[in-house]
Amino acid sequence: MRKKIVAGNWKMNKEFQDAEDLMFEIVDELTEKGSGDTEIIICPPAVYLEMSSDIAAENGFMVGAQNLSQFDSGAYTGEISASMLHSMGITHSILGHSERRTYFGETDKVIADKVDQALKHGMTPIYCCGEVLAERQAERHFDVVRNQVSEALFHLGKEAVSQCIIAYEPVWAIGTGVTASSAQAQEMHAFIRSLLTEKYGMEVSEEISILYGGSCNAKNAAELFANKDVDGGLIGGAALKAADFVAIVNSFQ
Ligand code: PEP
């Protein structure tokens, strides 16, 4: 059975006290409303990982990084390695987010190296893919996503790829208030799963959770998550409000 997962991407938001308050508000909401069998992963800014993972460990959810280095260790000023994160109990990392691709020039090759680093150190990559608006308008979205998925993941063997989570995040939907329709999300998720089936077989593809991301909120999550191939969400803006985030966590039927 595939895991249902809701991950929150806080991006570069909140100063320390506000971040800690938000963590405790999420804990309160979860205590009151529960979370069923949904796995929860919160990805705060790196400087708050320690504070967050201490709170998460006591309250049954997980914490992930938003990024990690493609290098093992050494003279890479400003970087944080997968082994450092793993040694602090950080279990997941978002990788290949469109903002990293756009503002920090991350290529599929660099992202593939980051995926390898995460897996080498026992972490779960949350690998993001998705087309920009012009690519969808030109009907190139399937080609774009096929290339992204194959270049970052298809060098992996069956066992390694089974450790990954994939997030389909159409770039035109991220932070815009424009959500992919339920049908568009299902269509792309089924396509990604078919790529995985073609490469690794059905046993593997049926085990990999594929999350939807892009203006997913407490109002539209249930419709998106009702789709057969949508196994949850990667949530940006709505993850910054505890009540909205926990409502999304509880949006599975
Ligand atoms: C994201 O940044 O991964 C994201 C999905 O953002 P938002 O929910 O704000 O569109």
Would you write up a description of this structure?
- With 253 residues, the chain is α/β, with parallel strands linked by helices.
- The protein has one domain (5-236): Aldolase class I (TIM Barrel), CATH 3.20.20.
- It has 12 helices and 8 strands.
- An 8-stranded parallel beta barrel has the order 1-2-3-4-5-6-7-8, surrounded by 5 helices.
- Strand 3, helix 3 (82-87) and strand 4 form a beta-alpha-beta unit.
- The chain is globular and about 45 Å long.
- The mean pLDDT is 97.
- Residues 9, 169, 174-175, 213-216, 234-238 line the site of phosphoenolpyruvate.
What labels would you give this structure?
binds phosphoenolpyruvate; 12 helices; 8 strands; alpha/beta; 253 residues; TIM Barrel; 8-stranded parallel barrel
